[in-house]
Design goal:
alpha/beta, six-stranded mixed beta sheet, four-stranded antiparallel beta sheet, 20 helices
Length: about 625
């Protein structure tokens, strides 16, 4: 387990300074607001404008306070003072009401914005992952990037929008307070900075403490999560009980949980001390500020009304700065993970298959499939999987691909059906390079019974018909040919049964039953070319024999590429192609290859001898 895949930004978070955080704010805010604008221009504009307007009315309210205090502190009778202050009081009340209404409206627009951004980000990510080149999933670094984008990047998309808006809102509020203080007296602005600096120091230092400890706990927390999954997973439940592993795993889980608890309690204690120091320093700074205000009053530097307004403004500025620091901190952390999401999306777009050229031919009914000099290597493989493979399959022909593990059989099959693109050489459908044909139209002419099939958590009908509307006759025929009809007959709701026991009334199928469903999936598609990759690995001998018999029936008039290790089953093929380390070693009919005494004959004898030994 590689820690960098899961906690890739811990170092940046642990070493972050306030200056470093502030330096990232403009870029992160701009990226976040671009996504917000794409999700909802109206709610984005409303959120920003309403927050800005609320800040303006906050400044108006402070100025109105000065007017009220000036009138109330004037040397005239009380009734006259109250009457004179009434216009300023009305302005203050109006500004307060307007500010409250604007903040409420801004909060509503902001609350609407977050789910829209999350929805757009999710759909965009999964649209890309559903279309990128298949070999991308064989690239470990790309998989790490995809994990980070899905695990934290998507989750942080909404948070970074909220944090960006809060940063802008707090900055506007702080700017409004600073502007008012600067107008009232030039000395008041430095006093505001003096009172808020300790809180900023304490917040950043406390956050860095937590990040460091979280980084130290990374491997232990991941191991604890893994153990918790084993203790509560259906996949491990049987062996957990059979081998009495429950107590052992729980003890290990408890040890890790205790370590995490003790570490976080120590962090809480140290954070409390830092915050207390910050509060004490902030209190001293506030006292010094009030003393400075008193000195200004005594010296006649500011009127009493201005001093009173300054006290209110400083308290309001302190609250705005605390919000700003918290939001900057959140925005910095969320922004790092949000960047993972945006960078992954950019990388995924570069891995999308190229669009077919203008006027590209559509793949008509298959007449001939030609593989010419094909080379292919997986991103992290040390050696190529295919090295100059040549193969020709004519319409209506059954061709079997055989060979030892790692010989390139499945890779060649994926190239043939357009899931992979040859790095050298071509795969041609009726003479046209499949890389230049519309991918979806090509794939609709190909049926695939995959070796590693997906157990879709959907109904039995959807597991066979896939994305097309189910045709009852074709569904029944495919189920009969694969043996899936016997499986469906035992299901409580027949074809409408969900094939996942985690859902209500869902069914749990055995490996052999699933393989029959997967076989029906490939046979259901009315395809020109059927690729069958290890279709009977989980079937018993009787079911295997029945499948190959029905496959022979289904293959009439169709082109079939069969991949299997069961060499006794390939005698039905018109031609057998033997692959060895990514090359075509030999090809021909069964009898011809046996007579030749090459690799096929050797493999066939090994399997035949094994069967004879078992029979004996």
């Amino acid at each position: 387990m590689t820690a960098s895949r899961y906690r890739v930004h811990d170092e940046a978070l642990a070493e972050a300074t306030l200056a470093g955080m502030l330096a990232r704010v403009p870029g992160t805010a701009a990226a976040a607001l671009r996504w917000a604008w794409r999700a909802s221009p109206r709610d984005t504009a409303a959120t920003l404008l309403l927050h800005a307007a609320a800040g303006v009315f906050g400044a108006v309210a402070l100025i109105a306070v000065t007017g009220v205090l000036e009138e109330l502190f004037s040397a005239v009778p009380t009734a006259e003072r109250v009457a004179a202050a009434l216009p300023a009081l009305l302005a203050l009340a109006g500004a307060a009401v307007a500010r409250g209404a604007l903040q409420a409206a801004a909060g509503w627009a902001q609350a609407r914005l977050k789910p829209q951004v999350e929805r757009r980000a999710e759909v965009h990510l999964f649209d890309l992952t559903a279309r990128i080149d298949l070999e991308s999933f064989d690239d470990s670094s790309f998989n790490d990037a995809m994990y980070r984008a899905r695990d934290r990047g998507l989750y942080e998309a909404g948070r970074v929008i909220d944090a960006a808006v809060e940063v802008l809102s707090a900055a506007i509020g702080l700017a409004a307070v600073a502007g008012v203080l600067a107008v009232l007296h030039p000395v008041l602005l430095p006093l505001l900075a003096l009172t808020v600096a300790p809180a900023g120091w304490a917040a950043v230092r406390a956050a860095r403490m937590r990040y460091r400890r979280m980084r130290e706990l990374t491997n232990g927390r991941r191991r604890k999560w893994t153990l918790g999954d084993l203790l509560a997973s259906r996949d491990s439940a049987a062996e957990l009980r059979a081998y009495t592993m429950g107590r052992f795993l729980l003890e290990e889980y408890t040890r890790l949980a205790d370590r995490e608890r003790d570490t976080m309690l120590a962090v809480a204690r140290r954070q409390t001390a830092v915050r207390a120091a910050g509060d004490a320093a902030g209190g001293a700074a506030t006292a010094a500020t009030y003393a400075a205000l008193g000195a200004l009053l005594l010296a006649g530097g500011v009127p009493l009304a201005v001093a009173g307004t300054a006290v209110l403004a400083i308290r309001q500025g302190q609250a705005a700065l605390q919000t700003l620091l918290f939001s900057v901190n959140l925005m910095y952390e969320s922004g790092l993970y949000f960047t993972d999401f945006t960078e992954f999306c950019a990388a995924a777009r570069r891995r999308l298959p190229p669009a077919p050229p203008a006027g590209a031919r559509t793949p008509g009914p298959l007449r001939e499939l030609a593989v010419r000099g094909v080379h292919f290597s997986y991103p992290t493989a040390e050696e190529p999987s295919l090295r100059g493979v040549d193969l020709r399959v004519r319409a209506g022909e059954i061709v079997a691909l055989v060979g030892e593990n790692g010989s390139g059989k499945t890779t060649l099959a994926r190239l043939v059906c357009g899931l992979y693109r040859a790095q050298r050489g071509t795969v041609a459908w009726n003479g046209a390079d499949v890389a230049e044909l519309p991918a979806e139209e090509l794939r609709r002419r190909i049926g695939l019974v995959a070796q590693e099939y997906c157990r879709w958590p959907m109904t039995a009908e959807r597991n066979v018909a896939m994305d097309t509307a189910a045709d009852p006759d074709r569904l029944a025929r495919a189920a009969r040919q694969s043996g899936a009809d016997e499986v469906v007959a035992r299901l409580a709701r027949g074809w409408d049964t969900v094939l996942d026991p985690r859902f209500a009334q869902g069914a749990d199928l055995s490996g052999g039953q699933w393989q029959r469903i997967a076989g029906a999936r490939g046979l259901y598609r009315d395809a020109d070319l059927l690729i069958v990759d290890e279709p009977t690995a989980a079937l018993d001998a009787r079911a295997e024999h029945a499948f190959f018999e029905t496959l022979r029936e289904h293959a009439r008039g169709r082109t079939v590429v069969l991949i299997t290790h069961r060499l006794a089953s390939v005698r039905m093929a018109d031609r057998i192609v033997v692959l060895d380390r990514g090359r075509v070693a030999e090809q021909g009919a069964h009898a011809e290859l046996i007579a030749r005494g090459g690799l096929y004959a050797e493999l066939y004898r090994l399997q035949a001898d094994a069967y004879r030994e078992r029979a004996a």
